[in-house]
UniProtKB/TrEMBL annotation:
Span of domain Aerobactin siderophore biosynthesis IucA/IucC-like C-terminal: 383-537
Superkingdom: Bacteria
Protein name according to UniProt: IucA/IucC family protein
Family (UniProt): Belongs to the IucA/IucC family.
Source organism: Kineosporia mesophila
Gene3D superfamilies referenced in this protein's UniProt entry, alphabetically: 1.10.510.40
InterPro entries found in the cross-reference section: Aerobactin_biosyn_IucA/IucC_N, IucA/IucC-like_C, LucA/IucC-like
Domain spans labelled Aerobactin siderophore biosynthesis IucA/IucC N-terminal: 145-359
Pathways involved: Siderophore biosynthesis
Lineage per the UniProt record: Bacteria, Bacillati, Actinomycetota, Actinomycetes, Kineosporiales
């Protein structure tokens, strides 16, 4: 099999494989099983192709059809793979009816209902429907990487509202990567004394195309529209603290994160966006901007060590950041982070693929070509997976255990480089803003940071492992195995055995030894987090047993 790195402008016609309804039902079932019914032992097989999910507090029972049989393991299973068909009392449920039963169960558990969740899931469902319709006639561009970034139609499979975005519906659609959004950044000239800036010593300063005494500040055009409807920006424009320069520069495309954009593979720009996406308002507070660039400098020795110790490892640096104070709260809403691009950091013959694109249920044609080819050749699939694991697991676990550095290596934060035959040969870790330092190991480094930065970056070891165990093992490894096994179900035990073997080769440390001994990993409770309208940093965790032990 050879990957050409081009989709040849192929039009996807297999939209009937997924629908917004089934994608939404599956996400809600996944959350229900992982966070509520699964930990209580209330998910049991019903033949080879169904499971019964009991809602313990309300006494209701759901019968859900499986895409493929569950893997039997000696202790625990990662997750049933649902088709989206679920019944209650013999009646098939849509996502609204399913949510009503979940609402009753969680209300009985928590004592509170959550009407806002209905609106968020409805918004997510609508955007998925729009994206599926867009995909029917989509012509892919020559820029395969950004096409892949914009190809994630289903999103986070363990979040109840993976595609929900707050704000006006017309703007949600206009700036949705799933709908092929393209736009120029909106620029302000801000009085120089109101601008804060931080950059690495070797980073080029931002352009100075602003009038004398002013600095250029880029905004996401959606953020500009939001702020223009408020009080602070219009006041700053009226009194001359800021000058509206309008849209300019290259045409940018939003990546899967919505607020990070790129024109090509030379640089990413992470912009503030006062929009709720999954669990967070996606703004860049100044202390987080500082943290990202500070960590890029602090972790430079580790970046070089990882590249040497684990060939193929690439860590993208956040090179600079800036914001402006145009009134209360505006420094958070105007923060900008510039990140290195992929150009010059990946081999010329390598195709960059966001790891999340590999787990997408309705993938881009290039990814579908890869996955279908692997599914038809068991030996090659295992070779591919072993190569992937060798790139992914050792550097992330070494950074945690050896250096007290917590990379959030979930599917969206990693890019894999595939050679011409589709084999993984490079792995990119990105988004230093989310990186944490273990307080017990990096106390001196943390002590030298300003207090808000220190509070954001520092984490106790147990909380650091929550992030590593969840992002790396449950979200990333578990998510990819599920996608691979959907196409080749008989390989699932061998795929997990390969994970066990690779983990066993990593230099041991306490948390890893516990996982290999059969202890669970922590997984984030996105349903319960949304139920409480909590921020992502306040998410809880539940235990999840990975099928790393003997197969029964």
């Amino acid at each position: 099999m050879t990957l050409t790195g081009s989709s040849d402008c192929e039009v996807i016609t297999r939209v009937d494989e997924a629908s917004a309804e089934s994608v939404t039902v599956v996400a809600l079932l996944n959350c229900l099983v992982r966070e509520v019914s699964g930990p209580g032992g209330n998910v049991v097989p019903d033949g080879a192709d169904r499971v019964v999910i009991t809602l313990e507090k309300t006494g209701q029972a759901l019968s859900a059809r499986l895409h493929r049989p569950m893997m039997n393991v000696s202790r625990g299973t990662l997750q049933p793979r649902f088709t989206g068909e679920v019944e209650h009392a013999g009646i098939r449920l849509g996502w609204r009816e399913l949510l009503a039963l979940v609402d009753a169960e969680l209300t009985a558990i928590t004592g509170e209902t959550a009407g806002h969740l209905l609106r968020q899931i409805e918004a997510s469902h609508q955007l998925i429907a729009d994206a599926l319709q867009h995909r029917k006639n989509q012509q892919f561009s020559p820029d395969i990487y950004l096409d892949l970034e914009q190809s994630l139609l289903a999103g986070h499979r363990y979040h109840p509202a993976p595609k929900a975005r707050s704000g006006r519906l017309d703007e949600v659609r206009q700036y949705a990567p799933e709908l092929g959004a393209r736009f120029q950044l909106h620029h302000l000239a801000v009085r120089s004394d109101l601008v804060r800036e931080i950059h690495l010593p070797d980073a080029r300063p931002d352009g100075d195309e602003a009038p004398a005494g002013y600095r250029l500040l880029p905004l996401h055009p959606w953020q500009y529209a939001i702020l223009l409807r408020g009080d602070e920006l219009p006041a700053a424009l009226a009194d001359g603290r800021a000058i509206d320069l309008g849209p300019s520069g290259p045409w940018m495309r939003p990546t899967s994160s919505v607020r990070t954009v790129a024109a090509d593979d030379s640089e990413f720009v992470k912009l503030s966006l006062s929009v709720l996406i999954t669990n967070c308002l996606r703004i860049n507070p100044w202390h987080e901007v500082q943290a990202a660039v500070t960590l890029a400098g602090l972790l430079e020795p580790l970046r070089r060590e990882l590249a040497t110790r684990f060939p193929g490892t690439v860590m993208l640096r956040e090179t600079s950041g800036l914001t402006a104070d145009l009134g209360p709260g505006t420094t958070d809403q105007l923060g900008v982070i510039r990140r290195e691009g992929l150009a010059g950091r990946l081999r010329p013959d390598v195709l960059a693929v966001p790891s999340a694109a590999l787990a997408e249920p309705l993938p881009h044609p290039v990814v579908r070509q890869l996955l279908d080819g692997l599914a038809g050749d068991r030996a090659r699939l295992l070779e591919w997976w072993q190569s992937y694991l060798r790139l992914l697991l050792p550097p992330v676990l070494y950074a945690y255990a050896g250096h007290g550095v917590v990379f959030e290596a979930h599917l969206q934060n990693v890019v894999v480089g595939l050679d011409g035959d589709g084999l993984p040969v490079q792995l990119v870790l990105r988004d230093l803003e989310g990186v944490k330092l273990v307080r017990e190991l990096r106390g001196d480094d943390l002590a030298g940071m300003p207090e808000p930065v220190r509070a954001h970056v520092g984490t106790p070891r147990d909380r650091g492992w929550d992030r590593v165990g969840y992002c790396l093992l449950a979200n990333h490894v578990g998510g990819l195995i599920s996608a691979l096994a959907d196409r080749a179900p008989a390989t699932e035990p061998a795929l997990w055995a390969a994970v066990h073997d690779q983990l066993a080769e990593v230099e041991p440390f306490a948390e890893l030894e516990a996982v290999l001994a059969g202890e669970p990993v922590p997984v984030k409770t996105n349903l319960l987090t949304r139920w409480r309208s909590a921020a992502d940093r306040d998410s809880g965790y539940v235990p999840l047993y990975l099928p790393l032990g003997p197969v029964s």
